[in-house]
Amino acid sequence: MEVSIKLFLFSTLALGFAIIIAWYYPKEFQLASFSPLGSIFSLVSVIDFVSKKKAATAERANEQMKRSPTEGDRIFSSDELAAMTEDPILLGFLGKVFDVTKGSKHYGPGGGYQFFAGKDATRAFITGDFTESGLLSDINGLEPKEALEVKTWLDFYEKDYIYVGKLHGTYYDADGRPTEKLRSAHHLIAEGQKEKAANDADKRKFPPCNSEWSEKTGTRIWCSTRSLTLFSKPLSLFNSNSGGISRDWTGFPRKYFQPGAKSFRCACVPEQELDNPHFKMYDNCDPKAISCKLASKNE
Ligand code: HEM
Hints:
The protein has a four-stranded mixed β-sheet with strand order 1-4-3-2. 41% of the residues lie in helices and 15% in strands. The protein is elongated, with a radius of gyration of 34 Å. The longest helix has 32 residues, at 36-67. A hairpin with an 8-residue loop joins β9 and β10 (265-269). It folds into three domains: 16-48, no CATH class; 74-202, Flavocytochrome B2, Chain A, domain 1 (Roll); 206-293, no CATH class. By secondary structure, it is of the alpha+beta class. The chain binds protoporphyrin IX containing FE (HEM). One of its GO terms (cellular component) is endomembrane system. It holds the Pfam family Cyt-b5.
C-alpha cells in the first residue's frame, strides 16, 4: 500500500515535470523523451530556463529604473532634475515633476521646447520668455487670469504625462511638503477661476454684439436675435463674433465699460439696463437702433 502511494506521487511529479518541459521546451522534450540522459538534459533545461527568466526580470527592472528613475513619489533636487534631459526626460511644472520622455520630439535634444527639460520653468509658460533669465518657476505677480493658464498647463501634464515626484525648490521643501509659494499660487489660481466664472456670467447677461466688416461698408454691429445667414444657413465666421453666445432677445448695442476692464467691449444690452452707467452709446447710432454702422474703425 505504502509503495503504491509513493509510486503514485512519484509518477504525478514526473508527469508534471514532463508537462512543464514540454510546454517551455517542446523540441528538447522530443529529443529527451524519458531516457536517463534525456531527464538530465531536461533538468538542465529547467535550471537554464529559471535562471534566464530571473535574468530577464532583473533586466526589465533595470530598464524601468533607467526610464523612470522615479518610482513612487521621489523628491528631486534641482541638480538631479537638471541631469534628466535625454533618457529619461523630466520636466518640472508648479513643483511637480513629470516624465515627458514620450514627448521627446518637443523636449529632447533639437526639440522646439527642449529648454523646458530638466527644470521647472512654469513662469515662462505664461510670459513666453524662453531666455535663460526667463525660464523661472515662480509665478508670483502674475494676473489671476494668467494663473488660470498655469492650471490649464498643469492639467495637461497631469493628463498626458507620468507624474514622478516633486522638485525641492520654489513649491516643495526637501521633505516634499508644500511651501508658502505653492499656497499663494493655488490662491491665485482660485482667484482666476472666480474671475472667469464672474466674466462668463456677465457675458451671458450682456452678450457680445454680432459684428461684420467689409472694406466697402466698414464695421456694422447688431443685436438682433437673428444671426447673419447665407442661403438660410448661419454664417459661422461672422456669427462667431457674437462670442458663441446665443440670444433669444433683441438688445441694443452699447460700449460696455466693464468694471476692472482696460477697454470697453460691444455688448447687447436689454432695454431695462440702458440706464446703467457702465454703458455708453456709439456715435452715429440711434439710441433705439438694434443695428449700427460704426463711424470709425477704432470705435
Ligand atoms: C507662451 C507660448 C507657448 C508655450 C509655453 C508653448 C508650449 C508648448 C509645449 C510645452 C508644447 C509641447 C506639448 C506636448 O508636450 O505635447 C507645444 C507644442 C506646440 N506648439 Fe507651442 N507654445 C507656445 C506658443 C506657441 C505658438 C505661438 C505656436 C504657433 C505659432 C505654437 C505651436 C506649437 C505646435 C504646432 C505644437 C505641436 C508641435 C507638434 O505636435 O509637433 N506654440 N507648445
